[in-house]
Design a protein that fits this description.
By secondary structure, the protein is α/β, with parallel strands linked by helices. It is 32% helix and 21% strand.
Length: 387
């Protein structure tokens, strides 16, 4: 019996994926797995028995990744599960910024008591006129699941699309419209595009990437959209650029004191993935990832461990080992099984940075003696008998 804890409300559609072999708990000390959305785990004391954390969403800055890795706790996210919801909000953001729809709606609210509001509206509408997005140049920085969908949709809306991502995956490249111009230098997007949207993860290397210098390279009157993470953008520099007329509108999905209520800023309360469909998709994927790891030891979409898949074990036993990514670890593992006279029928080893993960299918169920010996090998973080 496995136990799981939900740190945030998780879609019932996803939770239905758990079988009778799973029990929900309210205590993290009892949990084998944790499901989380936005709750911060940085100040939480993680118990020894915790095996995995599944984030029902893409961003994982609320989870202590390095601590989890060093303790053998696999952290999953759900890339692409909310991509369509975010894509639709990005397109809405472009429309809101290109035409003063928000101002027009506010005018109607403020003048709703006028008996001749229809005639007054005809005179007032010139104050809310804007531009169309068809024919404009859109720059997409980051061609992951969301960036690709935004780029392809923009192509279908008649925009000229530039895409930048030096690490674009094969899957993303296959899904990207052939009409998207893939540029090798982000400065080309800054200098060429009328609208720029950011879709990169928040890391040390991307924090503040849209800087004062980057903004200085942009066209006058550019529209900037940020539905990724607010620290990617130097928002003080954005406000200055709005005052100077460099930036026409800044659309962000992250309300904070810097931009909330400021002229030229359209600030949304993190609505990008706030759809029933996105929440269901994320929950379903997170639960599936958790189940496959707990039951089979397989890792898919982990942010702190390598991908590793050996399917369902057909042998007498399967052992998973989380360890340092150093030389001779596999030799020590296999020698130990050889000394005990246990045959390894299948094995895989993958690494990611300083962490490695090994799975072995063996022809007899491993005894506690060998498990203890594996645990005492220097550099081993966790040993688990899966079957």
């Amino acid at each position: 019996m496995f136990k799981y804890l939900c740190l945030n409300p998780i879609s019932k559609v996803g939770l239905k994926g758990f079988t009778q072999e799973y029990e929900k708990t309210e205590a993290i000390d009892e949990a084998d797995g944790v499901l989380v959305r936005s709750a911060s785990m940085h100040d939480m004391e993680l118990p020894e028995n915790l095996l995995a954390v599944a984030r029902a969403g893409a961003g994982v800055n609320n989870i202590p990744l390095e601590e989890c890795a060093s303790r053998g706790i696999v952290v999953f996210n759900t890339p692409g599960a909310n991509a369509n919801g975010v894509k639709e909000m990005v397109i809405a953001g472009m429309l809101l910024a290109s035409r003063d729809i928000v101002g027009g709606i506010q005018w109607v609210k403020e003048n709703c008591g006028m008996p001749d509001i229809g005639k007054a509206a005809e005179k007032a509408k010139k104050n809310f006129a804007g531009t169309e997005i068809g024919g404009k140049k859109l720059g997409v920085i980051g061609l992951g699941a969301i960036g690709v969908k935004v780029a392809n949709t923009a192509v279908n809306m008649g925009m000229e699309v530039f895409g930048y991502d030096p690490f674009v995956s094969v899957a993303a490249a296959w899904n990207l419209s052939r009409h998207v111009k893939h540029v090798l230098n982000v400065d080309e997007i800054y200098s060429e595009c009328d609208i720029i949207t950011i879709h990169v993860p928040l890391m040390d290397s991307t924090r503040g990437m849209v800087s004062k210098a980057a903004i200085g390279k942009m066209k006058d009157g550019v529209i900037l959209l940020n539905f990724a993470r607010d620290p990617l953008v130097d928002e003080q520099a954005v406000l200055k650029a709005i005052e100077e007329g460099k930036i026409r509108r800044y659309v962000t999905d992250f309300a904070n004191p810097t931009v909330a209520g400021r002229e030229g800023c359209i600030v949304l309360p993190h609505l990008g993935a706030s759809t029933e469909e996105s929440e269901d998709n994320c929950a379903v994927m997170a639960v599936q990832e958790l189940i496959d790891y707990l039951e089979n030891g397989n890792i898919k979409n982990s942010v702190n461990f390598p991908a590793c898949d050996m399917g369902v074990c057909s042998q007498a036993g399967r052992i998973s080992i989380v360890h340092k990514n150093v030389a001779n670890m596999i030799t020590k593992f296999t020698a130990l099984f050889g000394d005990m006279g246990i045959n390894i029928s299948d094995m895989t080893n993958k690494s990611k940075g300083e962490v490695a993960y090994t799975m072995m299918d063996v022809e007899e169920r491993p005894r506690e003696e060998i498990i203890e010996k594996l645990r005492h090998i220097p550099g081993v973080f966790r040993v688990r008998v899966i079957k």
